[in-house]
Amino acid sequence: MLLRVIISPQEIRRVTLQSLPESVEKLCAALRTSLGLQGNFILQFEDPDFGNELCNLTDIKDLPTDRATLKVLFTFSDSVSHSTLDSASLSSPTTTSSVDWPGPFVIPDFSHDVELQLRAANDSHARDGTVIVISKGVKSEILDKLADMISKYTPYPSKDQYESVAKALVAEHPCLEEPGSAKGWYCWVFSLKFKMGNYRQKLMAAGCPAVVVNKRKHGQTSCKAVKKSKKGEIHYLPNLPEGQSAVTLEENRKTMLLEVQKCDPDLQLLDELMTATFSQRRKEIIGDEPLISVVRDRWPALFNERQISGEFNRLVTTDLLQSFLNGLDALVPSLLELYKVAVSSSRRLSLSSVMQCLDKEDTNQNRRTAALLGLPRFFSEDTSDIIKMCDVHGETLDVIMKGMRVGLLIGHEGVLNDAFPLDVSNVAVVVEETIVLHNLRDIPTGFALLMGTIYCLNLEYPRSMRYSFEFLQKVIMKIKTDHCSAKIHGLRNKLLRYKL
């Protein structure tokens, strides 16, 4: 069966299936596999009974049997929002895409004459190992086509991604192998890097948000760090929704400001407005890097548990609390066992006070808390300006929060004699010495919302706890797990051995 699949206005793919799947669910699974789609989505199809107008596909029998045109509409979790967005509103070939980097990279077809030359050269290479003497025009077309394909995933490829493209190119067309290179594709990596630099200039001229945000201002000479997805964000800097303009998005923002001031705001309406203004909010947060006070004034609806979870879902297409707590629960037994071994061998004596809390009250919530608060102690990290405990009745918040760039404030009643309070009164998330979320029910939820806040506000992990936050992201939440530091990789392997 032949399918024409519309992922976005600029991303339309041709897919061939051996036969028509038995159900819509199996068709979605087949498209996930063949196109590398991630997140939740529904399918629409061109219905011939209605002049090929789009209709939701709910029954596989409604689909034409030989060939059909499908449209992918990405959705968000029902617990956050019941609205859907056209995938073009969150991704396009010139922005951060909803399609993961493929492994291995699929080399596109080149023009007919180039394909003929490569086919003949590949045959010669198979016979006697001859490599092609590539002309400037052929090489330019190959690089142009590859740059266009790469930009569909990211305008800023990493070193490993460049190498995967060069490796796939030589594997697909052995005649392009470099005889003087140990790996056979070393110079292709340099050519791709140079070509992508030029291609990004075209993307900037076309208004690609992910590239425009890195445009140097007039008179700026110093080269700042490139603003790009670093923590596994899938929709890092999306285009404006299709059919929307900056004016209409600003009107939606003002409507949201009025709604959030009501005593009983319409939560469903706020969900829809937050979804509709997502691209505008990301452009401001990433491009302008405003102070937290400015963000709170312009986007007050963002600062509650429901909307932080919703924004995180839009960014990573993952449920915040579910991914954090499920991942934590799976590792709590192994982490606590590892802490016990570290304490008994006198390698991490600071962990003993955390473990002693479980001797007093060994509940599931306290085990979660011990596992989380034990991480920075295991890594010998300084938490003094990131995780603070305070008596809710006896201490001044301004004094306690002084020096907190981003972190957790854990409230308790009375004098605290343990590593953490067994009875927590309040947990708050602090950014730039300002409480942005409060009345969180427990410490593990506080950690989850702290991670969500860091993603939503595009904050850097605190350097003094960088290994703990990397562990939370890559091991517990399983986001961008393929690039770990040596310390996190080693700890993950230890935990796997404890689970066996």
Write the layout of secondary structure elements.
Elements: E1 2-8, E2 11-16, H1 24-35, E3 41-47, E4 53-56, E5 67-75, E6 84-86, H2 112-128, H3 136-151, H4 159-172, H5 186-205, H6 209-212, H7 246-260, H8 267-276, H9 278-288, H10 292-298, H11 305-316, H12 320-344, H13 351-360, H14 364-378, E7 387-391, H15 397-400, E8 406-412, E9 426-431, E10 434-440, H16 443-456, H17 466-476, H18 486-499
Parallel strand pairs: 1-5, 7-8
Antiparallel strand pairs: 1-2, 3-4, 3-5, 5-6, 8-9, 9-10
Calculate the terminal CA-CA distance, rounded to whole Å: 44 Å
Average of pLDDT: 86
Number of strands: 10
Bulk shape? globular
- Summing up helix and strand content along with how strands pair, one would put the structural category as alpha+beta
Helix proportion range: 40-55%
Summarize the structure.
The chain has 500 residues and is of the alpha+beta class.
Task: Jot down its keywords.
single chain, 500 residues, alpha+beta, 6-stranded mixed β-sheet, 18 helices, 10 strands, 46% helix, globular
Structure description:
With about 500 residues, the chain is α+β, with helices and mostly antiparallel strands. The protein is built from 18 helices and ten strands. A hairpin with a 5-residue loop joins β3 and β4.
